[in-house]
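Regression test attached.
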Amino acid sequence: MKKILIIGATSAIAEATAKRYAKERASLYLLARNEERLASLTADLKTRGASSALYALLDVNDRSRHEEVLKEVIKTLGTIDVVLIAHGTLGDQKACEDNVEQALFEFETNAVSTIALLTRLANLFEKQHGGTIAVISSVAGDRGRPSNYLYGTAKAAITTFCQGLQTRMFKSGVHLIIIKPGIVATPMTEGLSMPAMLVAEPDQIAADIVRAIEKKTDTLYTPWFWKYIMLGIIHVPSTLFKKLNL
Amino acid sequence: MKAIQRIHGWGRYPIIGAEVDAPLVVSGLKSAVENYGADGMISRGLGRSYGDSSLAKYVIDTRHLNHLLDFDKNTGIVTCNAGISLADILDVFVPLGWFLPVTPGTKHITVGGAVASDVHGKNHHVSGCFSDFVEHIKLLVNPDNLLLCSETSHSELFHATCGGMGLTGIILSVSFRLMPVSSAYIDQKTIKAANLSEALALFEQNYASTYSVAWMDCLATGSSLGRSLLMIGEHAQDHKLACPAKHPITIPVEMPSSLLNRFSIQLFNTLYYNRITKQEVAHRVHYEPFFYPLDGIQHWNRLYGKNGFTQYQFVIPKEAGQEGMNKIVKKIAASGKGSFLAVLKVFGKQNDNLLSFPLAGYTLALDFKIEEGLFPLLDRLDAMVLDYGGRSYLTKDVHMSELTFKLSYPRWEEFQAIREQNGTKGIFASYQSRRLGLDT
Ligand SMILES: Cc1cc2nc3c(=O)[nH]c(=O)nc-3n(C[C@H](O)[C@H](O)[C@H](O)COP(=O)(O)OP(=O)(O)OC[C@H]3O[C@@H](n4cnc5c(N)ncnc54)[C@H](O)[C@@H]3O)c2cc1C
Ligand SMILES: NC(=O)c1ccc[n+]([C@@H]2O[C@H](COP(=O)([O-])OP(=O)(O)OC[C@H]3O[C@@H](n4cnc5c(N)ncnc54)[C@H](OP(=O)(O)O)[C@@H]3O)[C@@H](O)[C@H]2O)c1
């Protein structure tokens, strides 16, 4: 029976992933802010077959609570086989351009909180000598684009942080996977105009995540073709890139 | 105010601008209902209704309310939020030996949509509609009033809501009975019918089969008029419950609609009909291709090009039988507008819901791309169907007139009375309900 911790557990991608683990009878511990959604999600996961599903409230920006919350998790689960870090906000890029506080707040939510959590989790996993740390970054971190470079900056920070941590963790038998989804139809992207051809469903992403954790993939682009799209995008010369509206 | 989104039904016609609220929790849904109350709103599931049933200026999208709430493995009763998809239900419960008691031809619909359209499947003649397996629903008629409706509690509202196209409130949760199966496979038999009378006779001969449906070539004329492949099926008993994973293929963009013309469709239909050379073939197939052949091609609705399409599905009573069906099919064949294939089925008896579509008789469903001259043809078909005492299916409809609706759904006044009693008239309203004269 796998023991799974999910941070940002009410995210559409995280829920789809949790549902897959529930079917395998995992024990799940969920952290996020939306209590009504968490309560309903735990009922769902138990109905799907989860051995247990518990939740606690956590605003990831409330960093002073990280230690105590993680302690409680360990007390409940014992060891953690997989932690999935899934919280995030796309933010309002335009507003971030006009308001320093808002810009930094987006960075806090998407990067600082994750770095804080990973720092504690890394030490816990090192002691465990095993398990998987799965972190959702984004293709948006591969190259800054005018439409969402604040978000992209935070994701780039996460990616780079995780690359370093991945190598450190490897030495103690802990696997860290960096997950870079493309465009996914979730509440985060609702109402945005997106090229229909490129939009994936959360469950497709979840299937890839579960498989990649199993296969111990280091960096997962999901769906797979984003690897090639991003390879193209990072190689566009900046003289040309500046003229595009991405 | 939220940004205006462009939305449409499965037929991609009409396309309208709407404010869409997609709440994550019930309390969020209630405040959405409060905000939009005065201007009217409609609920929307996965948008698989073809026309304008789930379209309004204000839309409450239920797809995030997608959690399972409870399952009783002794009775097979599952309770879930209305926004969960049938696909999700199948994924969880087929491996445990349970199947949907009634399923439409796509699994990408919500349970709420299944109730609101009171959907039918290939087993209607023996099992009835989806609502026949519903224990109870929770219906939000206004933000302060959530009612448990069933055969025994608020039963009038229950019978108005099943098949009521979202016009009586928002279904928040549904409790319904699954059916035990011992396999994910179906023993399927395909039988050739050279024309319509052979097809109808085959339906009667196979009335005891759990599932039956026929694919008809609508463009064949003369002595081949109505030639069909009848498919019947039974749940296999082989104890193989695991489902192989498959990846659907996708139609990435709108296709030029000229690709679908009389010639290409005729060619396709002929090839389809002749793919079976023997009179009768038996196979064991997975439930996916048996029930959901089109789900294998994602976004196949883009095949019809940018003007979109509609599906015309009507039923005529058994008494009108072969003669009626013959005349209507002839009219369609002569128009040259028919689609790939038409789906023909026998229905069992009608239920007690006020606006449910099925009645004992024969039903035919076929696609038409939206083009000049189509609506006049549909008007002529409506008149014939009405003449035979039949009607067409609201969840597919995009053009029916108010008069045709009111004549062919004779219980519409009772329906309106219940809406008035519960104060939902005008509050829950769609483009369709306005067209049909149920709202102004
Ligand atoms: C390929 C294909 C095959 C099909 N085959 C069949 C078939 O064999 N038999 C059959 O009966 N139908 C069939 N259908 C039609 C389909 O089953 C119905 O249109 C169904 O209602 C769609 O559900 P949805 O979740 O997509 O709802 P939508 O299309 O979003 O909405 C349909 C109606 O339900 C209402 N509604 C949705 N959710 C709620 C809710 N929570 N509370 C109140 N009202 C709600 C909407 O207001 C609207 O009036 C088919 C459709 C397709 C695309
Ligand atoms: N959707 C995409 O196209 C896409 C693409 C690439 C990467 N991603 C990444 O994928 C991950 C999941 O996103 P999603 O698309 O599934 O989005 P989503 O459904 O909008 O979920 C985001 C979740 O983050 C949680 N969250 C936000 N702020 C939080 C905070 N301060 N404290 C705790 N939780 C917080 C929210 O939970 P509560 O409200 O319950 O707290 C919310 O459920 C994110 O990291 C996102 O950046 C998404």
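Expected vs. actual: identical. The CA atoms of residues 93 and 99 of chain A lie 10 Å apart.
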